[in-house]
Each structure stands twice: as C-alpha cells, then as structure tokens.
Amino acid sequence: MTIARICQRDVDSAMASESVRTAAQRMSSRSVGTLLVLDAQRRPIGILTDRDLALRVVSEGRVPATTSVEDVMTRGLVTLSDTASIDDALALMRAKAVRRLPVVGGDGRVVGLVSMDDILALMAHEMWQLGRLIARSSPSALAEA
Questions:
Q1: Domains, in order of start, for the chain
Q2: Distance between CA atoms of 97 and 108, rounded to whole angstroms?
Q3: Which segment of 24-33, 55-64, 78-87, 115-124 scores lowest on mean pLDDT?
Q4: Kind of pairing, strands 80-81 and 110-115?
C-alpha cells in the first residue's frame, strides 16, 4: 500500500510572506497545529507548527502581526513521494525524528500530509480486522457453528 492511499489530502497551508498572526488564526479556525508553507507552485518550503509559534514567536517576544511565517518556520523539510510505502514513511519518520511528512507527487508539488497518527490509525484498523478473523476461525467459534 502506498502512502498516497492514507495521507490527508486536505492540507492546511501558509505562505512564507504572511504574518504569523494570520497563520495562527488559520490554525485556530481549522483546529490544526501544523501548516505547510508552500511556494507559488505548491511545493513545500517549510512547516509551521504550534511549537514553532511558542518557541520562536512568544518566547522571543516577537510581534505576531509583523513577524512573517518565513522568519519562524522550520526549514529543511523532509518530504515523501506519493509512491512510497508505509514502511518507507515510518523509517523516514524514525530517522528524521518527525511526526508529519508532506507527501509530494513526481513534480514536487504537495498532494497530502501523512502523520504518525494516520499510520497508527491504519495499523489499529488492520489489527482489529485480524482479531475478527482470528476470532471467527478459532476452535470455539468453529464448534459453535
């Protein structure tokens, strides 16, 4: 199964030039803690998290209305191809110590975002289905049939 099958396609984003106040308001209204920062061609150039806002804006006493997203976003973003496997995503998340990865198509444009929570939800569902299969084929279940 490719990561494209489970990634979130509705990605909340920000522009590098907008103020962190505008970005924070978007985070609040959308109930998200992460915005991908995209260039004009929808390629990821950074990520802005609620942690970035706390550590790089609030704790440094910056003015949200005049501080740009570009000034405080996390750069050096690691991306994942939409053809990558879930195992590839987990390995990359472990290696880079991140919980979210932008998913990009062959042209480098964002097609989605996958989080550790997305993968854990899939694994939990798979385990539940496996449990149902085992329960149906157990000797006690077969004896009752």
A1: 3-115 (3.10.580.10)
A2: 22
A3: 115-124
A4: unpaired
